[in-house]
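Supplementary Text 2. Reproducibility record for the structural model of the 349-residue chain.

All settings were left at their defaults, and a single model was retained for analysis rather than an ensemble. We include the record here because the model underlies the residue-level annotations in Supplementary Table 4.
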Amino acid sequence: MRHVLSARPGPSAKLRVGFVLLPNFTLTAFSSFVDMLRLAADKGDRSRPIDCSWQVMSPRLRPVRSSCGIDIQPTADLLDPKAFDYIVAVGGLLRGVPAQADPLAAYIRRAAAAGVPLIGVCTGSFLLCRLGLMAQRKCCVSWYHYRDFLDEFPTLVPVADQLFVVDGDRITCSGGAGVADLAARLVTEHLGAATAQKALNILLIDRPRAAESAQPAPRRAEGTVDDARVSRALLLMEQNLAEPLAIADIADALGVGVRQLERLFADRLRESPQESYLALRLRHARWMLANTRFSAARIAADLGFADGSHFGRAFKARFGATPAAFRRALSPRSERIEGDGEGRVFETP
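Retained model, structure tokens:
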């Protein structure tokens, strides 16, 4: 199935955006961004690219397939990046991020050299990092790809508890519905808050969320009551498994007191923050035992346990078996290659 997107830029557009779609990109992320521009560009819902203009670019006008199988027909070849206020790389499946020698990578480098602000949406941020364009900058990634990011870019600073991050002329967004919030911020800066709100209203979005808003965390168990502060605390814990943060530091990052955080966890999860933190570390240890060849001692060290004995006792208390017995029971599954990155902590209740 092929969808043809046609939009020609207005000569006096106040916001000009060039899109580069990576293979297997996420259609929702792309369409949310474009629709915000479309609705902000004209009066009402007439969709004329007057105040905003956009081009979807691809080498030699080749269609680009999204992760859901729908092809997008580009509107232009790779144009002079200086014709745009922003160049947006929209990613999706990690295997769709192109190699550094790819024409798209060369184009992104050219845009960076020209001083054009770059936006990495979804795994588009991985491309910016692979090209060395995020050095000394914070990079927003989805909680789902947090460990993938650390494995590939151990020297960079990932942020997985915000919707998007603006760091100078580099903007990265975790993807999903947060793309509409990012696009709304750009529209606000270039066309005004009223225009952005008008577009959001048409999309049936109440109001834009700030960059610092927490990414919705996956539920740890059935029946869990959502709370943004608890979700953000869990994400902070997930990002600091090897060197656990003090609960006071987590509370401070959320702008609440320790006792208030403890009450929130008791109300929502029926356990203390310390118990939740230990549960996350142990569940991650269980995933590592099942999916890597790391020794139990290595896993204990990687997850901040004092020693192997401490880890073994905590693991048995939680899961009813020692790490060695758990791994033996897995049999063929324990032969999976080291660090294949398939699992996610939050997937296993």
